[in-house]
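Work Package 3 (structural annotation) set out to generate three-dimensional models for the target panel prioritized at the project kickoff. During this period the team completed the workflow that converts sequence records into discrete structure tokens, so that structures can be stored uniformly alongside our sequence database. As a representative example, we reproduce one entry of 382 residues exactly as it appears in the project archive.
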Amino acid sequence: MPKSSPMVHEARLLGILDTAADGIIVINAKADILVFNKACEAMFGYAASDVLGKNISLLMPSDFSVDHDRYVSHYLETGERRIIGIGREVRGKHADGTVFPLELSVGEAQTPDGRQFIGVIRDVRSRKAVEQRLNQLQAQLVNMARVQAIDEMGAAIAHELNQPLTAVMLYLQAVIRKTSSDTASQLAPQTLEILNKALREAERAGGIIQRMRHSVERREPERQACDLNALIDEALELVLLGHDIEGLQIVRDLDAMLTHVHVDPIPIQQVLANLLRNAMEAVRKSDRRMIKIQSMVSGGQAIVNIEDSGPGIPPDGLSNLFKAFATTKKSGLGLGLMISRSIAQNHGGDLTVDGGGDGRGATFSLRLPLIVGSHEQGIADQ
């Protein structure tokens, strides 16, 4: 079998390098580019013929390129490695001037033509975009948790203080009526004035609590046209963030027509996130971990059903499920479902539950009205 010429070997090697998914660049000791594969052409926007024989600083931003030749010279003189054999993140410059992040690994080879350096390059822009999105989601999740915590705290304070404060007001009113009508029990005018002041302050505190309850439970929604399915997907993305989802099956059955539901997006997304979080908790110890999310239109309403494959809710737990401080969890105030139903009802809808049982998990149904005269009315009439 005849031996292949060096040129054939070189062509074969270049052909192999051109199939690599990562960029591969070979330079000599002078930092001149000897090899520039297809992945590099796509990454940097140069044809190989445009860069071969040129200094690699062409592919670097100015603040990095001025030092590169010095780094190579320093290594050749001292053997001290600063990047060779060590992967690191650097920046590259596209032909259009765009600077973008790269992951670079550099190796060294002794050849008949002298030392050569092989760089394997990976474009990490997509990874950076994912990391940025992750940071945004984490910030959004923290903010949503903070809003929910404030809501829960406000509801807890209002609920806890309302009853004793009402009792104080009734006692003060009884004392004032008694002393005003019974001459034998009359108090000194100054004492009676103090009692009246105390009653007025108690009534004022009651008014503050009522406003707190209204702000938490019955704030007028700031409605806008929203894609309900997008709210569901965003809430799901937030809830899954940072959780172990191995073995968890998410089934989405979303009605594509639900793109313009008029709701206040922040509290509705809060409701969806709370329901999804509860579903994840319900299936945590189940052999089959499945959550089914369904959106649909029925009876002039947009409906979101969230079904889990958990053990269901026992009948004796259903009656108190939407009441304040009714919880089976080790942590939490037991206000999530109460506030969620309040938000739904404040939109003119409701939040209901089928407790399941007999091998079925629970299904929560969020119902929201479709606005008459809008795009949804046409859907409702179909």
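Residues 271 and 340 are 5 Å apart (CA to CA).
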